[in-house]
Amino acid sequence: MGQPSTCYAQKLLYGVLLLRSHKSFDKLSPHERFPILVNIAPAAQADRVMDWLSNEAIPLWSTQGVDWRGGGFQEALGFDSVPLEQTKLMRTTARQIHAFSVAKGLGCCEDGDNIIDHGIAFMRKGRTKRGGWGRSFNPDGTLLDATEETYDQACVLLALAHAHQAGHPDARRLGEETIEFLDRYLEDPKLTGFLETSEGSLERRSSSQMRLLEAFLAWYQATGDRSCMRKAADLGGLFEAHFFNSRTWTIGEFFDDFWMPEPERGNWTAPGHLFEWASLMAAGFAATIGQQDMLIYARKLYSFAIASGISRTTGLAYDMVTSEGQPLNRMSSAWSQAEALKASIVLDGVDGQDMGLETEERLARLFRSHIDPAAQGLWIDRVDELGAPAAANVPAGTLHRLVVVMSRYLRLGQTPDLAA
Predict the structure, then answer these.
(1) Which of 228, 258, 239 is nearest to 297 (CA)?
(2) 124 CB contacts (<8 Å, ≥6 apart)?
(3) What is the edge-to-edge ordering of all strands in the sheet holding 320-322?
(4) Whole-angstrom Cα distance, residue 279 to residue 274?
(5) pLDDT for 92-114, tens place per residue?
(6) Maximum distance among all Cα pairs of the chain, rounded to whole angstroms
């Protein structure tokens, strides 16, 4: 039997969502459930994905999304694709560099080198006197907020890793300087991860350590710098000792300075972050470093996120739930769906699991709920609990997640890694 067309595969996937409501569905064998779908090849919707990247998203954001006059990138576009004047964030600048570096590697961004160089030139205006990276810029490109936040340093390092792979001549040196800054000014004196800012903070967040873990692994893969592999391993130890809740299979978002759950919000967990952590455990530790024992965490995190972090009305990941699975924020953001899709791709084949059908379903939902309802190259960044649009504009910071997960999707069947 030949491969079904993309359109045909999508129709079948929508039918599966209806099938799953049948009370006897779980008792059926895979071939009884999906007599045709079991024969769908990996990346059955590849044409659809490549078309959106090459003919819609990248052409739009490489023109309307780049601020050639003021420097850097637009922080957001309206639903009419017109740039909105907003304070420019360091993390958004870094994420756009990341996005265009990956897009260049896919061959769908002809002006990739110029855009990456343009972004790095603007990002340099945000260097602090100590060699770190500030938080935000004024509209004219001057530094507005010089706070040296760990999350921003991580975004910059991740962007520079991919810019280095894309061939930018200064990316490696800037990345090495960023690592030196992190070690000197942001490493926790108690040797438990990194501080939130160089000035310290009583509140700690697991998400900043996760972003650093991602950046260190990417830098190791881009340069072979084994010191970053060791830093990633140290953060893995912090994950096991303080972040992962073995009772609930979740990761808290907010902690005190000693990595104890914050009293009021200590049981909050973002399903999108659980999917990200699962991907890092599998593609980062297991595949890159060789720590196969971390796969158990990936499976548990993914299991909780699927069981308790997904709306049964829309099939989309909630923005925030408690560690007991009670929704705190019933909105669903595009970035969370991208991370859910990435996790299903990364976990495919782990312990013999075939995640192909789930991957195709998640991609179809991402298009149906967030991408298809918007104008070309845009997306609906948030939807409510009924799936209705709930976003005021289109934030640039989501683009890199969409580009990265679609790049992974297009490479299905290859060895998992962090190349995107």
Answers:
(1) 239
(2) 174
(3) 268-269, 320-322, 327-329
(4) 9
(5) 999 999 999 999 999 999 999 99
(6) 65
Q: Which residue has the tokens 């003021």?
A: 70
Q: How many CB atoms lie within 10 A of CB 345?
A: 25
Please check the confidence at residue 38 and state whether its pLDDT lies above 70. Answer: no
Distance from C-alpha of 254 to C-alpha of 296, rounded to nearest angstrom: 23
pLDDT digits (tens, 9 = 90+) for 56-105: 999 999 999 999 999 999 999 999 999 999 999 999 999 999 999 999 99
- The Cα 323–Cα 304 span in angstroms is 9
Beta carbons of 407 and 420 less than 8 angstroms apart: yes
SS3 content of the chain, % helix, strand, coil (to 5): 55, 10, 35
Structure tokens at 365: 């939902």
The Cα–Cα gap between 77 and 172 comes to: 31
CA-nearest of 183, 188, 98 to 132 is: 183
Model confidence at 41, in pLDDT bands (50, 70, 90)?
Answer: low
- 348 Cα distance to chain centroid: 18
Q: Is the CB of residue 369 less than 8 Å from the CB of residue 337?
A: yes
